[in-house]
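Could you join me in thinking about how sequence relates to backbone shape in a protein? Label the sequence line and the structure token line clearly, so we can match residues to local backbone shapes. Once you have written the record down, we can walk along the chain together.
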Amino acid sequence: MLIALPLLMIPVVLYNIVVLTNGLTGAGMAAADATLREPMFSIPMASGASWNVGSGDLILFLSLILLFFELLKSTSSRKVAIVNHALSMILFVVCLVEFLLIRGFATSTFFLIVTMVMLDVLAGFIVTIISARKDLDFGGA
């Protein structure tokens, strides 16, 4: 039954942990954006520049990878896929409410995560509708 859980829940939970731990320590919700942008490590490039990678970048990278696997899961026509689509829709609503109503969630990083969750919801429903139409399209025309 764990396959029914949306994989994009992982980056949403990670983002919640980063934002809420900064908000609870007294640093304020404005510190969440600074924490997400603060470089965790730096990678030297061939051009001589230095690529600074922050925790927000890593969460977005993880989100993109998980979105790929969610899109692959959406092509399944098993009954558990319907539960996955419903849970993805609930996750999207929760993310949208957090983005609109909670101060620390109004960042570009979280907006991109919300967009990925929305694309997962849309892809899941569209793929399910198209595959259901193909399953029912057995009559001659």
The chain has a mean pLDDT of 84. DSSP finds five helices and two strands in the chain.
